[in-house]
Amino acid sequence: MLSLKVPTVSKVIQSGKALLACPYFASRGAIALSQIVLLPYQVLLQKATREAWGVNLKDNIVIIDEAHNLLQTIANCHSVELSLPAITIALSLIRF
């Protein structure tokens, strides 16, 4: 499924079906062999996700498109929303 040309999504799916292989995991496996990789912010910003995807930033150039969205994405990656009932239950569990 590796190619010197960038395949379309439909071509990757077609190749996966022909080879009885998962195109998603084949594409992820190709990251280590690629010179240019396009990633969602979440993959770039979270170390565990980068490692799971096989993305190594060392000695590489990172270009961030739509950088005006970066701060909000960072905040979302490192935030959690808790409902009042969840907080109330948590407090009752630690107070007993």
Automatic annotation (TrEMBL):
Keywords: ATP-binding, Hydrolase, Nucleotide-binding
GO-annotated cellular components: nucleus
Any one GO BP annotation for this protein: establishment of sister chromatid cohesion
MF annotations from Gene Ontology: ATP binding; DNA binding; DNA helicase activity; hydrolase activity
Pfam families with a match to the protein in the record: DEAD_2
Top-level taxon: Eukaryota
Residue ranges of every copy of the Helicase ATP-binding domain listed in the record: 1-96
InterPro entries xref list: DinG/Rad3-like (IPR045028), Helic_SF1/SF2_ATP-bd_DinG/Rad3 (IPR014013), P-loop_NTPase (IPR027417), RAD3-like_helicase_DEAD (IPR010614)
Name under which the protein is recorded: Probable ATP-dependent RNA helicase DDX11 (inferred by orthology to a human protein)
